[in-house]
Amino acid sequence: MTHTHELAPHAGASDALRAAGLRVTEPRVAVYEALGALPHASADAVHAAVSERMPRASLQSVYNALGDFTDAGLVRRIEPAGHAMLFELRIGDNHHHLVCTSCGAVQDVDCAVGHAPCLHPSDAHGFTLTSAEVTYWGLCPACASVAA
Prior knowledge:
alpha+beta; Arc Repressor Mutant, subunit A; Dna Ligase, domain 1; 2 domains; 34% helix; 13% strand
């Protein structure tokens, strides 16, 4: 038996694409809507979701859309060490991430100190900072309860 998962419609997919200077196409809208339903999604996860809506969509077309979205500043790409690239629609606030070292679950967390964006390290060593990424590693509640 095949289970289908509905993509949560993102009311402004077409508007968001246009505002980013991108041409609105059905595959791009499908990728954007998949990201709305799947925060911190890998390209493979986005492809699986898009394929339910558009069975002939290729993994390469998903990678192309994700690359275009990233270049246009429409999505944020995160690359936790040892994990596939992940993509999310939450941009512009330099939030951080919690990553489970067991199952790979990812959760957003707001800046730890001060106001977003966290661009005030103890010593910037002369760098002009434009963004910051902090990744906290540990066990998510589900994995921690199994480990206990």
